[in-house]
Amino acid sequence: MTDPVVSVLIPTYNGAALIGETIASLQAQTLGAFEAIVIDDCSRDDTAAVVAAIDDPRIRLIRAEQNRGVVLTRNAALALARGRCIAALDQDDLCHPERFARQVAYLDAHPGMALVGTATNVLQDGAILPSALAPVSTPLLIQWLMRIENPLVWSSVMIRTTAARQLDPFNRPALQYAEDFDLYHRIAAIGGVARLDAELLTYRRHGDGASQRQVLAMRDSATRVLAEVYAPLFGETAAAVAGLIVRHVMGQEPVGDRATLERIGDALVRLQEDFLATHRPDKASSKLIRWETARRWARIGRAGLRTGGLRLGDATGVRPNHLGLGYAGIEELVLSRLVGTVRAVQRRRAARSAAR
User: How many other C-beta atoms can be found within 10 angstroms of the C-beta atom of residue 123?
Assistant: First the structure.
């Protein structure tokens, strides 16, 4: 039997309701030379039966003997892969028909690249929504954004198998909930990381969202990843700086005071200046890097104004000149401040009423 071009890694657990649609999206690929390695991690529903009923020799179902969690299950799937490219895919996301063909063509045309993702849209409550990630990218923009956020959706990623197998382990269990973010940083030492700007994946966002425990674990793991990246530049304060970036840039948590906003701005400036000096990006990449950084700065300020934690003078007074306002003009910031003022008044009234 001829080896497939693409091996799709699908760890699954209690996914009976949606995994059939996910596999159907694979069967609709214009590049049909793939195998899907579906490892059922001891589901308590009919996941294994749903997959077993699909009459397609490209779909390989493996039933785990004990529940190991998504990270170890994904690592086990990689060990079974026969394709020269590895496609990531969660049990509920949907590939668009051209996804594999376009990613394989990109990797074939760019031998220095180890990983390529794609743009995505979001399916939530029956509606297709645009992604909040950067709409236009270059490899250097993706590399820069990796320093301040996670710029790739895991299910959109394709990796050269030779590069994936140089990672030991492929996903690190100690960094669960940010294992994909960690992988991007580790694989960048092997080859380039890029993204196709075409939407080639639909990511399902579930209404219940992640639990608070998962959010805190994700934040902790991402902070550990960035602290290691920041250490050469920030030394002993790397972990503290990483925590700020993870909470307020990556996690979009509103800033509550001017001093914190100023520390974030200083960190972004130092990180950006170091990146630009080290990588010397071309004009197009440099423009995107500055623009997307400014957009995130504006988002942080806008969120702080709307929650009432910042005044308009705080947002504009500590803004580094070259970060600009991003997509947010001064009018939008004023509106955000008005909203924040109203909310602050409502909170004070509620507090007084509760005290009576």
Answer: 17
